[in-house]
Amino acid sequence: MFLGLSAGGIIAAGVFAFLAIIGVFPRLIGKTRTNRHIFLYETVIIIGGVLGNVSDLYEFPLLMGGNMVLGIYGLAVGIFVGCLVMSLAETLKALPVISRRIHLAVGLQYLILSIGLGKLIGSLVYFSGNFGK
């Protein structure tokens, strides 16, 4: 059990680091002009990660207000996914700059296509249900 929790903690730290690197958190802080509350942001991000992991491990029944909680959760996830998509779109804007710097004259579309196809094939293999058996 300890090994599983340790591996989960490492993966969660990697996900948070990825989100910080692509600029989701700094962009939100900059857009809302709340630079003075960075400590609060850090605390809320850590608490959210911990509570998300705990709620994933243990299923807590909601006796009252389940639809309200589901609505709030859906809104929060929608906002998060929107911010993540915009950060990834800005990252993709950097691909032409990178291609000019490494002198990639032709083939950028093939590079993007191969990345997308690799993600598609990996997802199909994983979700086919035969992976790891």
UniProtKB/TrEMBL annotation:
This is Stage V sporulation protein AB. The keyword Thylakoid does not apply. It comes from Hungatella hathewayi DSM 13479. The chain crosses the membrane at residues 6-26, 38-58, 70-92, 104-127. Pfam families: SpoVAB. Keywords: Membrane, Transmembrane, Transmembrane helix. It comes from the Bacteria.
